[in-house]
């Protein structure tokens, strides 16, 4: 009796899009897409790809960016004191 060939396992495909539209980012963050456009134009650290007039956000990089911002807010801030004269 010969063994039947086993089909190689395929990696699971994510149903999440690789790139998000400004509307999708707005839905995710519960803000208007105009706000997303404003953030993307004012914050150079926000991951965004512009091709012509098309704007997309790499999902994984955007999620990491959001986590980094959340961690930065959780850090205690130093209180600066005025220098003594």
Instruction: Say how many strands there are.
Output: 3
Q: Return the structural class.
A: alpha+beta
Mean pLDDT across residues: 86
Order of SSEs: EHHEEH
The end-to-end span amounts to 93 Å
- If you compute it from the alpha carbons, what radius of gyration comes out, rounded to the nearest whole angstrom? 22 Å
Query: Uncertain regions: pLDDT < 50 for 5+ in a row?
Result: none
Q: How many separate helices? A: 3
Helix content: 40-55%
**Based on CA inertia axes, which overall geometry fits?**
flat
Biggest sheet details:
3 strands, antiparallel
Binned strand content? 5-15%
Enumerate the strands of the largest sheet in spatial order, edge to edge or round the barrel. Answer: 1-3-2
Properties at a glance:
3 helices; alpha+beta; 3-stranded antiparallel sheet; 40% helix; 12% strand
3D architecture notes:
This protein has helices at 22-29, 33-42, 59-74, and strands at 19-20, 49-51, 54-58. The chain is of the alpha+beta class and 85 residues long. It has a domain at 19-71. A hairpin with a 2-residue loop joins β2 and β3 (54-58). It is flat, with a radius of gyration of 22 Å. The N and C termini lie far apart (93 Å). The model has no long low-confidence stretch (mean pLDDT 86).
